[in-house]
Write a structure and sequence with these properties.
The protein is mainly β and 363 residues long. The protein has a domain of 227 residues: 6 Propeller (Neuraminidase). The protein contains 1 helix and 29 strands. Strand 28 and strand 29 form a beta hairpin. The two termini are 35 Å apart. The N terminus is likely disordered. Its cofactor is Zn(2+).
């Protein structure tokens, strides 16, 4: 097979629970029942300003399940479908709004993580492990490599990606995909640190941010004057930093916009037209200092209750928490989709959830 191409597998049976790859156990599917009450109590108003974004007669839906770790959703309005990565299963999945099918789009996918569209509607993918590169899928299915190394050394593990209106592509390069065997192959990092990179329209690659430990999700403000970046290993909490973007594509001095003080685990996020940040949320996995006796054993429980943290937390442009969408699974990343870009898709552990809101994606 030509190493610059991948098979696009689209179909092979429309099923809500996607088939596992050969030789791998089927991921467990969790039963889900939508709430029968309006307004849906899963949509929580933390500040009165969030009420305008809640649709009174809209309820949370589970539109697909059967994944092991759902990530990187991206919506394609021309085809009415959404793609998302199932990272440990090494595949990209496709949810079709028209018939509700959920099928394999690409497998293997080089442990794809973050995905987005460029201004021409082409798929941009962060291949998180093994190949450790950022690629573009052309209209004929050919794969173009946009970046796979910096200063003569391989990238770490490209994670999340966004495209600016000038055509530049910005992506984070933490270590997650090479730290172990769950999301790819363990490997020794070659870069001296973890960067946020910018691919200029002419293809030039530059490290624009190097002062964040394991940068994760990223997005621009609606006017693109600010770049927001999640620091996965922030001290003492995970954080979102705001960087002013200069005309030449460089960034200025950062300021902290969001601090996850409740044991929350920031991951991916998206920005709406009003500048609000809709953030994937869940437990950061921190343990309590002292054990509890559970079933006769000394057990170190998590700080906080994961069942109270799993979902999407919404912050206004000033960094104030204004809303929360409770989910039965931890949300890693999300995207606005639907014909009007007002359907919030949430890639959450094993499943893909959706909720219509009175907000629209900025891009």
């Amino acid at each position: 097979m030509n190493p610059t191409r991948r098979h696009l597998i689209a179909g092979a049976g429309a099923s809500l629970i996607a088939p596992a790859l050969p030789g791998r156990a089927e991921a467990q599917a969790f039963p889900f029942r939508p709430n029968q009450r309006y307004p849906d109590p899963a949509v929580q108003i933390l500040d009165p300003s969030f009420a305008r974004y809640r649709i009174y007669s809209s309820t949370l839906e589970q539109v697909a399940t059967g994944m092991r770790w759902a990530e990187g959703p991206v919506y394609f309005p021309e085809g009415g479908y959404l793609l998302c990565s199932d990272v440990p299963n090494n595949r990209i999945m496709k949810y079709d709004e028209r018939d509700g099918s959920f099928t394999v789009f690409r497998a293997p996918a080089n442990f794809a993580n973050g995905n987005t569209r460029d201004r021409q509607g082409r798929l941009i993918t962060c291949e998180h492990s093994v190949t450790r590169r950022v690629t573009r899928t052309e209209g004929d299915g050919a794969i173009t490599v946009l970046a796979d190394g910096f200063e003569g050394k391989r990238l770490n593990a490209p994670n999340d990606v966004v495209v600016r209106s000038d055509g530049s592509i910005w992506f984070t390069d933490p270590l997650f995909g090479i730290n172990g065997e769950w999301e790819g192959d363990r490997a020794k990092p070659e870069q001296g640190t973890t960067h946020v990179f910018r691919i200029a329209p002419d293809g030039t690659l530059a490290a624009v941010i190097s002062d964040i430990v394991n940068p994760n999700g990223l997005a621009f403000s609606p006017d693109e004057s600010k770049l927001y970046v999640v620091e996965w290993k922030g001290t003492p909490n995970r954080s979102i930093w705001s960087y002013p973007v200069r005309p030449d594509g460089s960034v200025g001095t950062r300021t902290k916009l969001v601090d996850a003080t409740d044991q929350g685990a920031l991951d991916g996020f998206r920005v709406d037209r009003d500048g609000n940040l809709w953030c994937g949320w869940g437990s950061n996995g921190a343990l309590r200092e002292e054990p509890e006796t559970i079933d006769g054993r000394a057990v170190y429980p998590l700080k906080g209750r994961p069942e109270d943290l799993d979902g999407v937390k919404v912050f206004n442009p000033e960094g104030k928490a204004i809303g929360f969408i409770r989910l039965p699974e931890r949300c890693a990343n999300l995207a606005f989709g639907g014909p009007k870009r007002n359907r919030l898709y949430m890639a959450s552990s094993h499943s893909l959830y959706a909720l219509f809101v009175e907000a629209h994606g900025a891009v």
